[in-house]
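Support case: 9MR complex. Customer-provided input:
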Amino acid sequence: YEPDTGPRVRVNQVGYLPGGPKNATIVTAATEALPWRLTSATGAVLASGRSTPRGVDEASGQNVHSVDFSAYRTAGTGLTLVADGETSHPFDISGTVYDQLRSDSLQFFYAQRSGIEIDGDLIGEEYARPAGHLGVAPNQGDVDVPCQAGVCDYRLDVRGGWYDAGDHGKYVVNGGLATYQLLNTFERTKTAATADGGAALGDNTLRVPERGNGTPDILDEARWELEFLLRMQVPTGKPLAGMVHHKIHDRNWTGLPLDPADDPEPRELHPPSTAATLNMAATAAQCARLFAPYDAAFATRCGTAARTAYAAAKANPARYASPADSTGGGAYDDSVVTDEFYWAAAELYLTTGEQKYLTDLTASPHHTADVFDARGFSWQGVAALGRLDLATVPSGLPAAERTRIRASVTGAADEYLAEIADQAYGLPMPGDANSYFWGANGNIINNAVVLATAFDLTGDAKYRDGAVQAMDYLLGRNALNISYVTGWGEHHAKNQHSRMFGNQSDPSLPNPPAGSLAGGANAALQDPFVAALLPGCEPMFCYVDDIASYSTNEVAINWNSALAWIASFLADQDDA
Ligand code: 9MR
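Agent response - structure generated as follows:
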């Protein structure tokens, strides 16, 4: 199998910010510097220079050169980069390249909503669908859901929330990360200079049914999941009261395609877990402080739930979801929860200012540890979430502590910058196969989030420029010459694995909406389709835009939440 990788000059197919970095990669046999030229839509030469030979790139196995045309800063559309007899895909230079990506990436969450009719007037008629999983036949959930055998003797109403990904499961652990990132995208507008007070994320900025209700739409979207997370809590008077069920999903795996409203499988609650309980505690604590100005009663409900969940987790610190529990839904197992404790204590401290949470926070092994992994934070490793919020959200932390915490963010960002400089494709991850795993596109963005936060803290443009380079990789500057975001770039992913979208499985279905991110190259080839198609692939080539490949090409809330965060940050960079 030979993928069609198009022109050998690789660019960010969407575009570059006028004052930002402008980098490209040439795949070539040449070992000496090559001349390049930047051309306008009419063929005029706008800039020219010589490439830098980089040798063989570890992640792709290709001999490559890099091109830096950052010095050219004039806006334009339909530009191309020409080198070695090849013309790149066209791109723009514009201060608004990312503006629409902010709303497109957030729109994905509305498309993933469970328990509500999806309104075609808001999202496009092709995406309209009836409410799923409200207990209307043939659905069997999610308003009166029993537990798996032997897990509990009660039933819960756990309607709502977002479908996790291409399946119809709803997992508290992963929902927690996505909710954090949406809430944090909003919270950033309160502290970041370039966010201009958050007007772009206010009410009436997204196509959601709640628009115009006086609450910022991104909070309305996050609330759809928060209400679900709160419903997953074990009721008072029951065993493990205050803990949170790990997940709810179908008893058996279903096939593609399947409209949520047509899913006939029994739905079941899986055992409460410490990780899920702390994910709810952390995000409910964020909810309590962010909703206070808009809906005091909801903020109070969140605050109470966060406190009771945290206390329950402390009383039950080692209830782990089983790695074997992956029939009908993903396992999302995690047997190290010290990071979840740290994150939840941080959020509760930031919300309440109470000493007991500060005590737990400072006693955590993560408080002084390096929490920023070279390969990004994820649903399983969440200490960075607490650290980023401690660095950015105003609190009563002593000044020296705050300084130390902020220095840990910029220190990690410096390491990601060094990695970017090392990579011929400019991504902030090491070049070996270990960086290409299931959902790594989300982790790549999460490293960009750390870079962007370092920029917010310091105003030093090198950090913003690092975040931009990470996006270059996702939007086309890569070995496959593909943009991993549907609808964005000349050649983009559009056949992501999903039961709800995808005309590869049913010609009457639309592909995922614009702004949907694919999981990305995964050298472990963890689905039968890529295992058969791509044996021996170089890491950056271990991806295919086919609906069958769930381990490289699925949509998911945790990677789209990363995309929404960074798109919102980049849309704010008007001066770059
Ligand atoms: O993103 C998850 C990845 O980190 C795991 O390695 C993988 C296998 O357990 O599962 C991924 O999450 C999937 C989940 O299990 C079920 N819904 C779809 C998720 C995205 O592919």
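Residues 110-397 form a domain with the Glycosyltransferase fold (CATH 1.50.10.10).

Case will auto-close in a few days if no follow-up is received.
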